Amino acid sequence: MLLNTEDFRRAARSALPRFVFDYIEGHADDGHCIRRNHADLAAVELTPRVLRDTTRVDTSIEVFGQRWAAPFGIAPTGLNGLVRPGGDLILAQAAAKAGIPFCLSTASNMRLEAVRDGAADSQQWMQLYVMHREMAGQIVERAKRAGYQALVLTVDVPVSGKRELDLRNGFRMPFKPTARLAWDLVTHPTWSLRMALQGQPDFANLTPSGDALGSASLQAALLARAMDRSLVWDSLRWLRQLWDGPLLLKGVLHAADARLALAHGVDGLIVSNHGGRQNDASPSAISALPRVVDAVGGKIPVFMDSGIRRGGDIAKALSLGATAAFVGRPTLYALAAQGAPGVRSVIEVLKEDLVRNMTLLGATRIDGLRDLASDPRPQAPA
Ligand code: FNR
Question: What is the Å distance from ligand 1's center to 180 Cα?
Answer without folding.
Answer: 26
